[in-house]
Every structure is written in structure tokens, then in C-alpha cells.
Amino acid sequence: MSDWHDVATLDDLWEGDVAEVAVGPDTILLAHLPGRQVRAYQGICPHSEYSLAGGDLDGDVLTCTGHLWEFDLRTGEGVNPSNCRLYEYPVRLSGEQIAVSVPTDGRPHYNRCRG
Amino acid sequence: MPKLSRSDWYDLARDMNWTFGYVNEADVFPEELSGTGRVPPEAWLAWDEPYKISYREYVHNQVTKDTTTYSLKNAVGRSKLFDQLDPGWKSVVVAHYGAIAMPEYLASFGEARMGRFGRAAAWRNTATFGTLDEVRHGQIQTFFPYGLLGKEPRGDWALKAFHTNNWITLAVRHLFDDMFVANDALSVAIQLTFTLETGFTNLQFLGMAADAIDVGDLEFGSLISSIQTDEARHAQQGEPTIKVLIDNGHKEYGQFLVDHMFWRAWRAFALLTGLSMDYYTPLDSRKMSFKEFIQDWVVKQFADQFRDYGLDFPWYWDEFINELDWYHHAIHTVVWNYRPSVWWNSDAGVSPKERQWLEEKYPGWNRAFGKHWDVLTENVRTGNLAETFPETLPVACNLCQLPIVRAAGVLAGAHTDPAPLRHVHNGRVYQFCSEPCRWIFTRRPERFAGHKSITDRLWTGDINPPNIGGVLAYMGLSEAEHGVDADNYAWANGKH
């Protein structure tokens, strides 16, 4: 089971921006990619739990400031290293409103990947 | 010219492996230096580091880190920030530099050994970066305390400590000689990069950087963060190494190397981090107790990793968990009692409020340790300071080189007998603080038997005269360098 949550508007998140929002125990990274594409992933790096919202977004690739791990935010796949991926939340855009769907099992959702 | 992406050329540039035609395998990779002979050479080709980096990117990243960190140091150096730091925190920093700066430099030997004798080109490549990392860490952690000399003359113990026979140095040097200075490439990967760095220091450095910022020590916080980013990259050598070993049927040997070093890493952590977190860091800045830190980070996260690789908990796991409640408290008491023998100012950390915190975090602390501090407090209050100094030396363990504190273990309900454990090897009696320390020694006695603990040196006449004054001189401490109570006993008078 999942619930939809309004978390931001496109006014808060311009193209090329990332932001961190919290829904219950989940810390969520929002990214507005070129072409009005909004994605939502786990907000902490799967490597050492740094906040990904402090990372640098270049095109579709986000580089975490912790240890320079890179993620493709179009797909959530790790670029370097390539053996891990970010947990992804479904996103719905209604006009300017951004909503994300978060499972209602009461647990935070994220992948871990050590290195 | 079109620019290829890294993945298009990386493997080709990295994988400088070839078949030997003019020399023997054993001449190129002697077992005592490489340690990889259990696994056939071709099986090592599966070695792959998860996070990739080219030399060009490496240099770019390192220059950026150095520029940021050194600029911050220059700015902070002109301020009064260091003067305003809590005295206990200054002790954290001064203890850290003395115990860690030179070992970081020495770790470059271990990395360089993997860079030459690691059995896969990918491994040697990663280790070459690791070598450069550790040279940088040795230099930066010697240079930063050098900048503090005007304010804290014992900043020079960053360089000096390892050139003395101070008892803390003996313990730390014995550990790191075992772990990387005198260790083969395979064991360095598993014991330094997997067990110590992945298991303990990566996690500790994150917490320490956050604590430094919290107490207002921007310089140390920035330094530690800059180091930690390197550690996380070269620490990844452990994972592929242990994977190759296990995939080729040598789980038991990997388990032995982990069990050996996990215990030793725990001992060093209890000494350095245990005291820092639970006694030296100002109460307001403590986010968690040392026990909570070990439970949340080391036990939970690192233990998950054991199991991911099919390894088991070390055989002494119950004893390790049990020690979280008492071992570092006992060591803290010893370090404070012998405060002139260390190069930092020991912070008793037992003001009424701090004692309340300790009892809350470690139920039973008052019963096992508080009683001892009651006596010390009374002696300080009545001006009887001489009574707070011991007249003899504790007996050091012949493996970890730390004082044998089993008597405190009896008070804490962990042991029934305070006597040291014994083992006779070639007619010489060796004494140990714990079963795991004895086990590590007896599995490979030839590795450790020739070493003399500080107690042995006293008994065999290396230290003259054999009294406290002679011992302090032997340890390289001039009177001006003797540690004193960090708070000038304010804690005993209920102030803090």
C-alpha cells in the first residue's frame, strides 16, 4: 500500500535543481531534470548516508559530495560505482504540484551499497 | 579528437596483467610479501573495485581537497578559535595527532606493498592511489598540529610520538606493525582496509568530523572530512580481496585474518575513541555514547557485511559485546591515573552532570567505577593530590600492550578472576588481558614472541632507574610535556 503526498511545486524546484523533502520516516531527494522530468529517490547516499541534496547535478548525473559517487537521476542507476541504484518513488505532476507515492509500511525506504 | 567516456578505456588502461616468460611466479610475487598464493593467479583477475577513478581525476580531486582544507586552516589560524575550544576537546585533538599522524604515513608502506605485490593489476592500481592518499594523510596531519605549536607545544608529538617508547606508542606501533608495516599484501587488504577502515575508522571519522564542527573546531573538522573521503575510496580494496578469497574456497583463512584484526582494532578504538567520546568531548556535544556508536555503526553495519560475504561473527563476539559496557571505562581510569605519562591532558570527565550521563548510558557505572572516582574526588577536594598518583606500573598485555584491567572486569561482572591469562613459549612467560589477545598470540607466536612490553622492559632492566621518574624519561616525556588534568580538577569541586 502507498499514499500520495504533495511535497513541492515546480516553483520550488526549477529545472536543474534538486531538493530534499521528508515524508514520515523517509528522506526523499527530488530532482527536476531537463525536459520537465521530475524524479524522486532516496535522499541519503546508499554508500555513507550523506545527504544527496547537497550533491552537484550536471545534466542527469548527480555527484554526491561525500565520496563523489555518481548517480544517473534519469534512471536511479549508479554511474560510478555501477553496482548500485537509488530507491525510486513514483512521481505525479498535476499542473505545478509535485506528488510522490510512499509505501505505507512505516519503514524508511532506501538501498544500501557499500564500497 | 572525440573524448571517450571513462568506461570505454578504463579496463584497458588499468589491467596491466601479463604472463611471465622469463621469471617464475614465485620470484615476482614472493608469498611472504604477497600472501596471495592460496588462490591461483588467473582467479585474481576477477578482482574489481566498485568505485573507479583515473589518475587525472584523482589528482584533480586531491588538489581541490587540499586547497579547501589548507585555505580553511590559514583562515582559522589567524583567529582565536583554538583558544576558545573546550580543554577536553583539545585533548582529543592532541591525542589524535600523536597516535595517528605517523601511522597514516606508515600505512603508505602497506598500501605500496599492495601496489607492488597485489596479485591483480586492478588491485595494484587502486593501491597506488591508496599509497598517495596515506602519504598525504601523514603530511597533512603533521603540518596541521605544527601550526598549533604556538598554542599547544605538544602538537609536535604528531611527529615525535612514534620516535619514543611512550606506552601508548608501544601499543599503537605494535598494532600497526602487525597490521600493515610487517604484513603481506593480502593480509593488509583484509586487516587494514576491510577490518580497520571499513569496519571502524570510516565510521568513526564521519562522527569525529561532525563532533569537531559541533564544538567549533572547524580546522580539525575540515581536516578529518578531507581524509575520510580518501579512506572510503582505498578501503574498497578489502571487499574484492575477500570475495576472491572466499570464491576460491579460502573462507576459513579470511575469517582468521578478520578475527585476528577485529579484536585488535577494538582494543585500539576503546583506547582512543572510547575515551574521546565518553570523557573528553564536552557533554553538550555528545550525540551518542561510545557504546551506542559501536552498536549502531560497527556492530550493525559491519556485522551485516560479514554475513554478506558468508563470514561468521568472530568466535569471541559475546566477549566483545560484553566489553562495550566496561573495558574503556577501566582504560580511562588508568590513563587518568597515569596522566603524566601521556602527551595530552587527560580529562577526568566525571563532574556530577557527566557522572549522571555515564550512569544513564552505562547502568551500573557508579557501582563499578564511580566508587573509585569518589575516592579520587575526595583526595582532590582535601588537597591530597599526591594520593591521586600511583606508585607502580600496571602490567601490560603481551599482545595489545595495554594495561591488563581484568580486576575492573570482575567489578563489572564480566570476569571472575582478576589474574592475567598466561602462556609459556620457549621458556618465557607471556601475560594477556583477554582470551582473544592470548589466542592471537598463540596462533602465530613467532610473529610476536620477540617483543617486550613496557612491563617487560622495566623488569629486565631496560628502564633505569626502575621508578616512575625513570619510566617517564624512558617514555620521552620531559616534565613540561607531562599530561595534567585537563580541567585543573574543576570536576572534583562540582564545577564544569
How would you summarize this macromolecular structure in one to three sentences?
Chain B: Keywords: Monooxygenase, Oxidoreductase. Chain A is mainly beta and 115 residues long. Chain A is built from no helices and 11 strands.
Main attributes of the structure:
heterodimer; A: 115 residues; mainly beta; Rieske Iron-sulfur Protein; four-stranded antiparallel beta sheet; 46% strand; B: 496 residues; mainly alpha; Ribonucleotide Reductase, subunit A; two-stranded antiparallel ribbon; 22 helices; globular
Mean pLDDT of chain A: 92
* Secondary-structure element pattern of chain B, one letter each: HHHHHHHHHHHHHHHHHHEEHHHH
Q: Which secondary-structure class do the elements of chain A indicate?
A: mainly beta
Distance between the termini of chain B: 67 Å
Strand content of chain A: over 45%
CATH architecture term of chain A: 3-layer Sandwich
Instruction: Give the tally of β-strands of chain B.
Output: 2
What is the total domain count of chain A?
1
> What order do the SSEs of chain A take from the amino end to the carboxyl end, as H and E?
EEEEEEEEEEE
Query: DSSP helix count of chain A?
Result: 0
The CATH class assignment of chain A is: Mainly Beta
Helix content of chain B: 55-70%
Distance between the termini of chain A: 32 Å
Pfam families (chain A): Rieske (PF00355)
InterPro entries (chain A): Rieske_2Fe-2S, Rieske_2Fe-2S_sf
Family (chain A): Belongs to the bacterial ring-hydroxylating dioxygenase ferredoxin component family.
Protein name (chain A): (2Fe-2S)-binding protein
